[in-house]
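Hi all, long-time lurker, first post. I run a small reading group and we've been trying to get comfortable going from sequence to structure in the token notation. Rather than ask abstract questions, I figured I'd post a concrete chain and ask someone more experienced to write out its structure so we can walk through it together at our next meeting. Sequence below, copied exactly:
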Amino acid sequence: MDSPPLPLPHAATPTELRRVVAGWRAAGETVAFVPTMGALHAGHLRLVEQGRVEARRVVTSVFVNPTQFAAHEDLETYPRTLEQDARVLAEAGCDLLYAPTAKSMYPEGFATRIAMDGPALGLETDHRPHFFGGVAIVVAKLLNQVRADVALFGEKDYQQLRVIFRLAADLDIPTRIVGVPTERDGHGLALSSRNAYLSEAELEIARRLNGRLAAAAARVRSGDPIDAVERETAEALIVDGFASVDYVAIREADTLNPLAEAVDQPMRILAAAWLGRTRLIDNMAL
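-- Answer (accepted) --
Happy to help. Here is the structure in token form:
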């Protein structure tokens, strides 16, 4: 049985995408781009909203990128809700949904990889060594395909955001990269498509993560040693009910270089922790 038609214009190949964008360009219109993996929530729609501020037209991609998943991760079970995503994007004022297939993104014979250093080192890479290579190649392809004036990414994935800033600068990609503050629920939990995996009991525990980061940030500002704050915050998350903690780390905000002590410049505290099969990440500016 055929799927119902999507409620907004959509493209499935780079050729279709470029035809639409070329028409906008010919009319002198600017273009914003919001890349997603679907299962859209209010955080994604905040990016679309900001895209409408930044440009006349907004393209949103929905693509569950296989190259950023390891064999043991949730590629097959990652939520896929394209028809619902299209409805909420139409309501949010998105102009075009770009939903490429894995075959169109990675055709037979595809052999290119991108190796990232700098802000990609440590943190996520220590636990998901494949991850930023997969992110870098798909983001580079998407930015080259859309050729938008501006692309918007959420600060929830803060290390990813810094990697993308570095990627665009290093590869001379002219699209301006903009980070948008994390959207949270009424309890402070960062919105994420993977929150759908959490039970009610796990949600109660998950909502403690942001409070622990806020308390850690306050301790750093008051002069407590960074290594003690990192260690004791991780221990507190275990007491709260998290199954394990991959990291709690305080870093320079732009470079994500490690810090031996608090410095008089922007810093960021980042954390990743597990509840059941769900891995949560969050961060906060100091």
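A couple of things your group might point at:
Strands lie at 10-11, 31-36, 57-62, 96-98, 150-154, 176-180, 244-252, 267-275, 278-285.
The chain has ten helices and nine strands.
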